Amino acid sequence: MNPLEQLLFDNANEQNTRHGILLGKEVVAIEEAIMIGRKVDEMYASRNEEVVSDDDSTAYQGPVWPPGP
């Protein structure tokens, strides 16, 4: 491989490495966001378990519509 080819090859490898690192960071960020979302889901699920009752009169019935006077 002549010096110019070697330089081009090295440059391409460096660019691929940088691109791979950026993609790796994006993947890690996405995985962290998914984990945070799961933690939030678990938090809300545990909160809802504490509030659930068998008595329908105290269960959440949704918003009042139309709004009162």
Explain this structure.
There is one protein chain. With 69 residues, the protein is an all-alpha fold. Helix content is 71%, strand content 0%. It has 1 helix and no strands.
Highlighted features:
single chain, 69 residues, mainly alpha, rod-shaped
What is the molecular shape?
rod-shaped
Oligomeric category: single chain
Alpha carbon gap, first and last residue:
84 Å
Please mark out the parts with pLDDT under 50 across 5 or more consecutive residues, or reply none. Answer: none
Percent of sequence in beta strands? under 5%
Q: Total strand count, please?
A: 0
- N to C succession of SSEs: H
SS field, number of helical segments: 1
Radius of gyration: 27 Å
How much helix is in the residues?
over 70%
How would you summarize what this structure contains?
This protein starts with a helix and ends in an 18-residue tail after the last helix.
List the helices and strands and how they pair.
Elements: H1 3-51
